[in-house]
Amino acid sequence: xxxxxxxxxxxxxxxxxAVVLLTDFRGEEHIFLEGDPVxxxxxxxxxxxxxxxxSMAFDTIDASGFLNVYIPAPRIAVIGAVHISQYLTPxxxxxxxxxxxxxxxxxxxxxxxxxxxxxxxxxxVDALMADPLDRYTALVALTHDPKIxxxxxxxxxxTGCFYIGALGSRKTHAARTSRLAAHGFGADALxxxxxxxxxxxxxxxxAEISVAILAQVIKALRTSSRQTMxx
Length: 231
Fold this sequence. Notes:
Blueprint: H1 3-14, E1 19-24, E2 29-33, H2 43-52, E3 56-59, E4 64-70, E5 75-79, H3 83-94, E6 98-102, E7 118-120, H4 124-130, E8 137-141, H5 146-159, E9 163-166, H6 170-181, H7 187-190, E10 193-194, H8 206-223
Parallel strand pairs: 5-6, 5-8, 6-7, 8-9, 9-10
Antiparallel strand pairs: 1-2, 1-4, 3-4
Helix pairs in contact: 3-8
Protein name: XdhC family protein
Domain XdhC Rossmann: 77-217
């Protein structure tokens, strides 16, 4: 791999951007970031690679070689260091997700309750400025507190997170969507929030609710219209 290609790949990884490295058998390398315009003869190849998320060999009239696809690892941002979070975080990590918890309430966000979990006790507005959401992140809001949940929900809608879910009854969610609508979000955007959160499996305790949430996150990851999610 050429030095310039490696530097550009590393820069894309740091920014959590999907990228394709195209290497033809003549030794030439081309880097394409998702969303960038791609000119023929590689446009269809690169677009197909982003859709599938899979590296592949290619052999066309114009060139032959290999496409390497680099997709950011899926992660879950959990808003709220609550009882559900204590079950959800180890389950999600076992399922292969990077997980972080954001909760400014230091009485809840403690190492005793969440050992070995990335945790931030800043307010979400500050936490998400330092480490922004992206479309490879699931946002799970669990505090029931608008002062804590509303900002990250709005950021998730703006960013296009592949999953957005919020704990609460239908009445609670109706009030939530009214607040978000006042900030300019339309009905289509608000309909992407899963609330009540989790698949309907009749969950009745924090562990079962965590299973329902994680199942819904995985379903969103694997059935998303964004086919660039990692396999």
